[in-house]
Amino acid sequence: MRIFNFRRSFFLLLFLAILPASASKVRWKVKEYRNNKYVPLSQVKDFYGLTSMTKSGSYIILRNSDVELKFRAGGQEVLMNNVKFIFSHAVVSLGTYHISIVDLKKVIDPVLRPFKIKEAKGFDTVIIDPGHGGQDAGAVNSLGTEAGYNLKVAKMLQENLKKRGFKVIMTRTDDVFLTLQERVKLANSYKNAIFISIHFNSAGSRGRSQARGIETFTLSPVGVAHYGRGLKDSDNIERMGNAQDSANIALATAVHWSSIQLLARAKLEVPDRGIRRARYSVLTGVKHPAILFEGGFMSHPKEKYLINNPTYQRTLAKSMCEAIVFYRKATMQKVGTAKR
Ligand SMILES: [Zn+2]
């Protein structure tokens, strides 16, 4: 049912003008826990004008007629209008349920109030980075190479974006090798741009062949690790890409949500692995809002056929293009002029 509500759901998430009655006067009840700062979910509810907070099993659900935020006690997976985000820190019970300030500032706020994102300036250029190439094929299976699939989808996206009037820069247009630094350097030589790195996944050689689905990465905020590994000292250093933290997550939301929805509509459904945090070089170094999109697992026995299917590739490209158009609208919208 939900797939038919694509536009409505999308608008609700990224176009909502949620204006807290007295945002500047809110005094968050901050609690320290294991070196991180947390705020109560009940305050999050009030701040965003949500009207109810209910508990269902291990889930805590905050909602009003337009927005639903679903948290799980002790978990990092959070659904915001059914878009899956992997929080930097788990929801904890400190008397009452709390979430980390990092997740409030770096996920919830830019998603619910994209028009507040200062660094999301107008852009007319989209830099598409097809991952790998040349001597670096990326993941390989019996049907093709990741470098090849990345380039195919990138070229389809390029065509779509040109039709919508964007200027498109490709980090590569052939099967050539580029270092990550070269990609970053090229991207940073442009202005007024966003950056999309396209990849396909592999579960590696450890026999985890059942891993599948789509995931979208944005740069970890300062103090947050690369997904799946522990915190390092270097994670506390602010990177170039951190200046765009809020824009990064808004762009990721648009692209991730759009791809999950359009694939489902095309009956090419893949599991939703969520929007995650990572410290990939292209994300740390690029000065534009940036994401790294993983369009499925080449190592999965069924998903590899989907990835090889031109309809699947075209649907990914189309969904990214639609998302970029939506993202531009959502972030350009001025406070007070928001429409649903
Ligand atoms: Zn890759």
Could you characterize the architecture of this molecule?
There is one protein chain. The protein is an alpha/beta fold and 340 residues long. The protein has two domains: 18-112, Copper amine oxidase-like, N-terminal domain (Copper Amine Oxidase, Chain A, domain 1, 2-Layer Sandwich), CATH 3.30.457; 125-332, Aminopeptidase (3-Layer(aba) Sandwich), CATH 3.40.630. The chain has helices at 6-14, 41-47, 101-112, 146-163, 180-188, 245-265, 281-285, 303-307, 310-332, and strands spanning 31-33, 36-40, 52-56, 59-63, 68-72, 77-80, 83-86, 92-94, 96-100, 125-130, 167-170, 193-201, 214-219, 272-278, 290-297. The strands form three sheets. A six-stranded mixed beta sheet has the order 11-10-12-15-13-14. α3 (101-112) packs across α6, α4 packs across α9 (310-332) and α6 crosses α9 (310-332). The protein starts with 5 loop residues before the first helix and ends in an 8-residue tail after the last helix. Residues 1-6 and 335-340 have low confidence and may be disordered. Zinc ion is lined by residues 131-132, 138, 146, 199.
Give a count of the beta strands, DSSP E runs of length 2 or more. Answer: 15
Using the coordinates shown, work out and report the CATH topology of the largest domain: Aminopeptidase
Output the CATH homologous superfamily of the largest domain: Zn-dependent exopeptidases
Q: Identify the bound ligands.
A: zinc ion
> How large is the count of helical segments?
9
Which CATH architecture of the largest domain would you pick?
Answer: 3-Layer(aba) Sandwich
Q: At the first level of CATH, what is the class of the largest domain?
A: Alpha Beta
> Which residues form runs of ≥5 with pLDDT under 50?
1-6, 335-340
Structural class: alpha/beta
